[in-house]
Design a protein that fits this description.
about 280 residues, alpha+beta, Alpha-Beta Plaits, 4-stranded mixed sheet, 7 helices, binds iron/sulfur cluster
């Protein structure tokens, strides 16, 4: 059975917040709310590094990493268990959703979620621009909302907006129960962690740290069909540049390649915000 999950390569993440912004746009997330946040791991304040600045010609020891975080779509989701009206539920494909018509705003789920992934609409949600941006209807005042893995896009065979719009290829989405999927290969190939594993929630977001992956190979499996539409190289009639998009910072030779080593270039998802 399909069981969707996400891999985030923290070694590739550059903290640009494109995932957070594209999530807000795609899902009409209200002003002041974020479903997808990018945390800084470093100094004691946001966006500050740990370590020391270079002195006397030394190299210094500045260090800063980023940890994008959103709903982890836990296999064993405490938010689902505590919802008294079954407004929070897990879809057959593993995505944890909220039925906003059923939600009574009790916020038990917010208390139960160890990832601080949910937000509550205390006031009438404010959009900017007023009519909103994405295709997803705004949620009303008095309900809890959160990341849906862009289930409306997934249902259309598309990747979540944060995956498509990550310029660093740090996010890969796919079916965890399919051994041949890109996410499964990455989880098998690289050392990955889940957040707060000791809570027993079994999050479906896995983080690579320590060793940088080669980047999203032609994006995840489902996105390849989408790329066929926009790639100038997809029909094989034009030369394939040795370095596509210029977003590879891995030092792995400058070309993105699949985990199986095929030579297909990664093509940035041009105009991906408006393709659906
Ligand atoms: S869009 Fe990609 S690189 Fe930018 S903060 Fe999000 S995960 Fe990191
Ligand atoms: S991260 Fe929080 S909101 Fe998302 S499934 Fe897990 S417990 Fe529920």
């Amino acid at each position: 059975m399909t069981n969707y999950g996400l891999v985030i390569d923290q070694e590739r993440c550059i903290g640009c917040q494109a995932c957070a912004v594209s999530c807000k746009q795609e899902n009409n997330v209200p002003m002041g709310q974020f479903w997808n946040r990018v945390l800084t791991e470093g100094g004691d304040k946001i966006d500050t590094p740990s370590g020391g600045y270079p002195e006397d010609g030394g190299s210094g020891s500045l260090d800063m990493e980023y940890q994008p975080t959103a709903c982890q779509h836990c296999e064993n989701a405490p938010c689902v268990k505590v919802c008294p009206v079954n407004a929070t539920y897990t879809r057959d494909d593993g995505i944890v959703e909220i039925d906003y018509d059923k939600c009574i705003g009790c916020r038990y789920c917010m208390a139960a979620c160890p990832y601080n992934a949910r937000v509550f609409n205390w006031d009438e949600p404010e959009q900017m621009p007023e009519e909103g941006t994405g295709d997803v209807a705004a949620r009303p005042q008095g309900v809890v909302e959160k990341c849906t893995f862009c289930s409306h896009r997934v249902d259309e065979g598309l990747d979540p907006a944060c995956v498509v719009n990550c310029p660093a290829d740090a996010r890969i989405f796919g079916d965890l129960d399919d051994e041949g999927s890109t996410v499964s290969k990455y989880i098998n190939e690289y050392e990955t962690d889940q957040l707060l594993e000791d809570r027993g929630t079994d999050p479906k977001t896995h983080y690579i740290s320590g060793e940088m992956s080669p980047g999203r190979p032609q994006t995840s499996d489902k996105m390849e069909s989408e790329l066929d539409d926009v790639s100038p190289w997809s029909d094989g009639t034009e030369d394939v540049p040795s370095e596509a998009g210029g977003s590879d910072s891995s030092g792995s030779g400058g070309s993105h390649h699949s985990i199986e080593g095929d030579a297909d270039p990664h093509v940035p998802a041009v105009g991906s915000g408006g393709d659906d």
